[in-house]
Amino acid sequence: MRLISRLPGWVILAILAVIWGTSFILIKYGLKVFSPQQVGALRISIAAIAFSPVFWARRKRIDWKKWRYLLVVGLFGSFIPALLFALAQTKINSTMAGILNPLTPLFTLVLGILLFKRPFEGRKAAGVSIGLFGAVLLITTGSQLGAGGDALYGLLVVLATMCYATSGNTVGAYLNTMNVLTISAVSYGLVGGPALILLPSTDFLNAMQTHTGAWEALGYVSVLSLAGTFFASLLFFDLIQRTDAVFGSSIAYLIPIVAVMWGIADGEQIGWWHLAGMGLILSGVYLTRSRTRKPKRAEGTDVDE
Prior knowledge:
By secondary structure, this protein is mostly helical. The chain has one domain. 73% of the residues lie in helices and 0% in strands. Helix 3 (36-57) packs antiparallel against helix 4. The longest helix has 29 residues, at 214-242. The model is unreliable at 143-148 and 292-305 (pLDDT under 50).
């Protein structure tokens, strides 16, 4: 964790973009064998198991007075979106799922103002607006990438971005002084149980025994969980604490770029409108970066040792 804390915010942003931009392809491959419920439950279960040693080691230092906020982070930052994205990608492809992610900063800003009493800042509003406009360019030309699909299932991704915005604001507003490992371990610990219960209630075991590509699909979901959920969550929570929820959620502006690159690798075409959209997205990321100092951790809080 000390190494992560020394990395500049923009470096963490780039790493997260690569990890999460690749996650949609991994979900797509997982869905070739497993149902959306199985992919979502597997993703959360594997991450919860990975975090369990951290949870056990820090169990006595957890501030359980904040359990409601930790549960919100677990549900809205991981469990619900994992299910929504998997279900959405049964009808829309991975590129479109990635393209819709830039809605997260917009909802983060709006919810931050309406529910978390965050001040309105013109610089951030401008950044979100410019970045969102770039995303719109990508969305409106999405059919050229074969990224079309059922619009109703696209709304599931929109709902998932609202969940991410709720989680991001919660971390920034109520868990700002809590150690990122503790946030991750407890939030996944709280939702890992339901995920583990959900998984055997499906035909997961039957799929593993009868489908020839089951182990390969499980490998894709495992990478998705350990890299895209376990490791990336540590980076993301640290990023929010060192900047703020709006800048942290601006990672969603970079995700479509990686997703589109995967589309190109799969033989999909890209036009200059897509490049223009990417340029606007990067401009939006720059403008949403906070220039205010983060408050110092209070004495006695759960910090890295």
